[in-house]
Every structure is written in structure tokens, then in C-alpha cells.
Amino acid sequence: THNLSPCRFYLYPELSNDLVSTHPPGAHSLVAVSVGYFLEDFVDMLCNQKLHQSWELLFHHSVVIICFGIAVLLHQYVGFALVALLVEINSIFLHLRQILLMANLVHTTCYRLNSLINLGTYVVFRMATLAWMTRWLFLNRHNVPPAAYAVGTVGMAIMTPMNIILFYRLLRSDFFK
């Protein structure tokens, strides 16, 4: 997970200048493994969950599989996909929240602490990262081929509202009961 570290930009400054054709050693493999994870999780949800319970995550996974798959196949935009993986740092706390809910530990200090960390990492690693990625796409629209720009723009147009809605649900559930 060293490739996910924000200090990677410090250690590999070329990434800050070129998210299209440059990426740190191991980044392509990390994005490829991530595609495999999202594919496996997609199939697991299809087989083991009711569609009305998982359609949002299935949709999310579909977008990620397509976008990351393009990066892996073309060996382009791997740096951009690497930035997108920063979002997954928050997933640790989202998943821990789910485990604590399933264990009926909602009224514990652990749940409350996780809720605060979850919200903080959500703002930093989901909202801010998605905003930065959207801004990057817009500012670099003249340097990105139309097809790649369309895929990126559609991906961001899908992910941003989904994450805003999830943020609202988390706030409502954990802080405004």
C-alpha cells in the first residue's frame, strides 16, 4: 500500500506533473490488482446479495472496473487511477462501521470514535479527492483525448453524487438520529 501514500507525490514528483503517462514503479500492478478486487467483489455481491440491497455498489464497482480497466489496458492514466485509490483509505472505516453495526456495537465508544474518523477520512479522502480529480480533468481537458475525457467526466459525474448521498446518509444515521 506504499503506492497509496500521499507522500508518494513527494517521493515521485513526476506524478504531480503527469498523471497520464507516468506512474511510480508498482503502480500499474496496484491498479491491476484493484481491478481484480472490484471484479471479485462485484461477482460476490451478484451471487450473495439481493439486487435492491447492492445495486448502488454494483454500479460503483462497474464504473471503477471500466475506468481502472482502461488505465491498466492502455498503460495510461495509471497516475490518475492511483489518485482515485486514495478514496479507498476511507473504506477501512466504512467497513469497520458495518462490522460494528452487524455486531450490534452502535452504542459503544469504539463505534462513536470510528464514526468521527469515518467522517473525517470521508471528507479528506473521498470528497476532497473527487473534487481534486474533477478539477484536474477540467483543467487538463485540452490534453486528454475526447474518449478518455468522456469516460473520466462520466465517471466523476457518477461518483461525486453517489458519494455526496452516502455522506448525507452517514451524517443522518450517525450524527442526526
From TrEMBL:
It is found in: Membrane. It is a multi-pass membrane protein. Its main location: membrane. GO terms for cellular component: plasma membrane. Keywords: Membrane, Transmembrane, Transmembrane helix. The keyword Chaperone does not apply. GO terms for biological process: membrane assembly; phospholipid homeostasis; plasma membrane organization; regulation of membrane lipid distribution. Residues 1-177 form the TLC domain. The keyword DNA-binding does not apply. The chain crosses the membrane at residues 55-74, 80-96, 116-135, 147-171. This is TLCD2 protein. It comes from Leucopsar rothschildi (Bali myna). The gene is Tlcd2.
